[in-house]
Amino acid sequence: MLRFRPFFRPAAAAACALAALSVLPTQAQDMPEGSSELARRAVHVCAACHGEAGRSPSSDYPSLAGQPAQYTARQLLDFRAQQRAESDSKAYMWGVSALLDDATIQSLAAYYAAQTPAPGRTKAPAALLRTGQRLFEQGLPERGVRACASCHGERAEGAAGFPRLAGQHAAYLERQMQLFGTRLRPHGVLMKAEVAGLNRAQTRAVAAYLQSL
Ligand code: HEC
Ligand code: HEC
Question: Is 118 domain-assigned?
Fold first, then answer.
């Protein structure tokens, strides 16, 4: 991803922040009942990149708000097991996920699932959005691409292991579609045909549409 590279190593910085959590003043009010102290405090570290309540204002970081808990937990486990291994995953998520135990992962996942997502926004041209909508709702049967809606939900709201895509940053979505075609993100096997069947322009169109939802 092309982005401003901080002069510090982000994973190291996140690890330091988590180690120094006792100095953080407040606790998240709406963490699920029974959440550990670690989970209550870790959420502040996550917010530094993923935004308040997981509503990321920056396309550098995916939003987490409204994401089904099962999906979020799976990703944190994949980062921790170093299976989701793209350079941004490594730089940003390997260090922080290594500090999370299973119970904390479940609490954080439940917390983000309960947060209200930010409304979709777009500056994309209407024609691009229409193309994206068609791909999302109908797929591209002649290329073996199924409708994204059939797995991700009619409004891309996600469920269980299927991620919410609505309102997610388009640049992030596009990048992930490319990664699913590689070994750097191995758990996209269900979408193999969709990833292989869309060209760059089509992927861009569907990502632009999804950000607008
Ligand atoms: C230093 C910045 C930073 C911090 C701190 C951080 N993240 Fe991330 N996170 C990222 C980046 C960048 C990505 C995208 C990685 C990629 O493109 O592979 C990401 C990806 C994720 C994803 C995958 C999202 C998806 O849609 O698949 C989850 C889940 C996640 N982070 C959860 C967390 C949690 C929970 C915390 C706190 C314990 C946290 N992150 C802390 C930068 C950060
Ligand atoms: C057969 C079911 C299925 C279909 C059809 C499908 N997906 Fe997915 N998709 C998944 C699953 C399951 C995952 C989660 C993979 C993982 O855990 O890493 C996923 C993940 C994603 C992600 C990563 C999201 C994130 O937050 O990192 C994107 C982007 C995505 N899908 C886009 C699409 C698009 C666009 C289409 C339509 C062209 C589509 N998917 C069709 C099942 C499907």
Answer: no
* Whether residue 50 sits in one domain with residue 142: no
Specify the ligand 1 atom closest to the Cα of 108. Answer: 35
Residue 42 has pLDDT above 70, yes or no: yes
Residue 26 has pLDDT above 50, yes or no: no
Distance, in Å, from the CA atom of 70 to the CA atom of 196, rounded to the nearest integer, reads: 26
Question: pTM of the predicted model, to two decimals?
Answer: 0.92
**Cβ neighbours around 103 below 10 Å, total:** 13
Centroid of ligand 2 to alpha carbon of 51 (angstroms) = 23
Question: What lines the ligand 2 site, CB under 6 Å?
Answer: 62, 74, 135, 145-146, 148, 150-152, 161-163, 165, 173, 176-177, 187-188, 190-191, 194, 198, 206
Q: Which two tokens stand for residue 24?
A: 């953080």
- When divided into structural domains, the chain yields a total of 2
Residue with CA nearest ligand 1 atom 27: 75
Does residue 121 lie in a domain region?
no
User: Whole domain around residue 183: which residue ranges?
Assistant: 126-212
Q: What is the pLDDT of residue 57?
A: 94
Is 75:171 a contact under the CB 8 Å cutoff? no
pLDDT score of 186? 87
Same domain, 196 and 156: yes
- Tokens encoding 50: 């993923």
CATH number of the domain bearing residue 40: 1.10.760.10
86-116 per-position pLDDT tens digit: 999 999 999 999 999 999 999 999 999 999 9
